[in-house]
Amino acid sequence: MRHQVSRAFKEVAGASVGWAVVMIFLGLLAVILTRRTEIMVSVIIAWIAILSGLTYVISATGDWHAGALIWRLLIGFLYIAGGGYVAFHPRIADEALGLLIASIFCFECILEFITFFRIRPYAGSVWALFDAIFTLLMAFVLVLPWPGYSYWTVGIILGINLVVTGSSVLIYSLATRKTVEKVS
Fold first, then answer.
1. Cβ–Cβ contacts within 10 Å for residue 165, how many?
2. pLDDT of 36-82, one tens digit each?
3. Whole-angstrom Cα distance, residue 16 to residue 118?
4. pLDDT of residue 157
5. Residue-level pLDDT at 123
6. What is the C-alpha to C-alpha distance for residues 91 and 94, in angstroms, rounded to an integer?
7. How far apart are CA 136 and CA 109, in angstroms?
8. Were both Cys, which of 30, 102, 150, 170 would link to 20 (CB 3.0–4.6 Å)?
């Protein structure tokens, strides 16, 4: 029985590692593809946000702590809703896109802080706190110069945030996997 539980945790941690790599890839894609036309950037960023949201939802099932599961699902649905709005309204102004992404980041920050406090006793939980602080910083970077930034700023900030979030999920998942290996 103990061996089965240990194996299940290892499989879940492995899946979380895979989804973290996908999130990092999507973040790099957002950074690389930002020098296009305004509409194209809006649509690309929107679909990256939607895919990242789906990644959050799918990887949330790998969080074995119920509190983390709920908050990760909420973050995922927030990305899907925000990205979906922009994807189906591609002529949205640069300023509105920047504020929308900053709003998503603020809500993500709140949910990441809650996740951190729920998983604080576990190995690697500090990365959830790091992700929350970094996400809040990215929201401020988007809002402070508003509306004077160019369209590609949103893509770069979103991409950087996804790379950091993916990295923190990766590190947290590896720490979970290592803990399970020690226990089994």
1. 28
2. 545 666 777 788 889 999 988 888 776 666 667 788 888 889 999 98
3. 18
4. 82
5. 79
6. 9
7. 6
8. 170
φ/ψ bin of 123: left (φ > 0), alpha (ψ from -120 to 50), beta (otherwise):
beta
Domain ranges of the chain: 2-183
For 122-132, b/e burial (b = at least 16 CB within 10 A) is ebbbebbbbbb
Angle between helices 2-32 and 38-60 (to 10 degrees): 170
Structure confidence by residue, pLDDT tens digits, 115-143: 889 888 887 888 889 999 999 998 988 88
Question: What 3-state DSSP class applies to 167?
Answer: helix
**Per-residue tokens: 95:** 């300023």
User: Which of 39, 21, 18 is closest to 162 using CA atoms?
Assistant: 21
